[in-house]
Amino acid sequence: MFVDDYEYSQFQITKILKRNAYNKGYSNPTKIQYKAIPEILNGKDILGVATTGSGKTAAFLIPLIDKVVRDKSNRVLIVVPTRELAMQIQDEFRSLAKDTQIKSVLIMGGNSMNTQISILKSNPNFIIATPGRLKDLTNRRAINLQTINNVVLDEVDRMLDMGFIQDIKFIVEKLNRNRQSLFFSATLNRKSEEIANTLLHNPVRIEIETQGPGKNVDQDVVRLQKGQSKFDVLLGLLESDSLEKVLIFTSTKWGADKLCESLRQKDVYIESLHGGKRQNKRTRIIEKFKNGKIDVLVATDVASRGLDVDNISHVINYDMPQCYDDYIHRIGRTGRAGKKGFALTFV
Q: Which of 141, 241, 303, 339 is the most buried (most CB within 10 A)?
């Protein structure tokens, strides 16, 4: 996962960026950071195939922040599938860009459009956006995509799964042709390759994590015996000291809220997260989970992508995922950055 014989000090980036990286605990780069950062610094387009948890956010943020530090005329657009992932990237940006005076704006639904338009008028160097809101603001002429000379499409496979293909094509068509483009996806199919071909110019192809998904995750099933209550078995599991920070997946919003309330009555520090909650509420819940104010989070698949929380020890599939891809993204919340994780699925 990490390149042990190479350090961040060896990258040709500014001192302030090296300092911020070290302050975040970065010393040795991950494989995708080691391969991508020098190529991005050299102005190359990138086609990156990398699973979640491989460190790709820093792989594109670090060289792009360095590029803007050296030349403030650069403007960067980062497009991601979900609000949660957009907020994670914003948090990462703020820590890596500390004391550089570089500003960013978060463009996504659930937050005030007027506030976002107001921030855009100050021409921030970084725009972090979800496709739908970005298209809306482009149509309203609040954003001129011709002024963007660096673009990142992240988790393209997920954007396509969520039905954003027309939005992405619209965005790509509006971009300045004189740009550096970075494209990241966990998988490549015909549709994603079609987008890559229209976005990228002579890209450097980087493939990481070929050992397969969930390789740092011990996976097991929980088989209910005759007469056993699913809830009681879950409660017994949560009483184990080894389950330190736990993410539980249910199939519905109603199921998440019901399970949350039932566990709360058993004195479990828990919250529920799903698309039915207002964005500011979802943000507060994620912060509580990150900061250890709650030990357990029960969520729908809204959290299976873009939720980047350190040290989740266990993922529990209380309800079975709808498909294999959903399962892979769920268990990808644990076992991240080379650490060991555990996934349990009720059957």
A: 303
Handedness of CA 333, 256, 81, 142 (dihedral sign): negative
Q: How many structural domains does the chain have?
A: 2
pLDDT of residue 336: 73
- Match 């991601």 to its residue by tokens: 80
Give me the residue label for tokens 């919340």.
333
The answer to whether residues 103 and 233 belong to one domain is: no
62 is a domain residue: yes
**Full strand arrangement of the beta sheet holding 204-207:** 104-107, 126-129, 76-79, 150-153, 180-185, 46-49, 204-207
Residues 60 and 96 in one domain: yes
Single pTM value for the model: 0.75
Q: What is the pLDDT of residue 328?
A: 82
Helix residue ranges, H only, the chain: 15-23, 31-41, 56-70, 83-96, 113-120, 131-139, 156-161, 165-174, 190-199, 230-238, 253-264, 279-290, 324-331
Residues 238, 176 within the same domain: no
Is the same domain home to 194 and 221? Answer: no
Give the alpha-carbon dihedral of 106, 109, 114, 119, to 10 degrees.
Answer: 10
Q: What is the per-residue pLDDT for 209?
A: 59
For the chain (347 residues), the mean pLDDT of every run of 10, in chain order, is: 82 95 89 95 94 85 97 97 90 96 94 94 96 96 96 92 91 94 89 92 85 73 90 92 91 94 93 87 89 92 72 93 83 79 93
- Cβ 130 vs Cβ 167: under 8 Å: no
CA distance 229 to 291: 31
Residues 176, 228 within the same domain: no
- Boundaries of domain holding 329: 217-346
Q: Are 153 and 195 in contact (CB under 8 A)?
A: yes
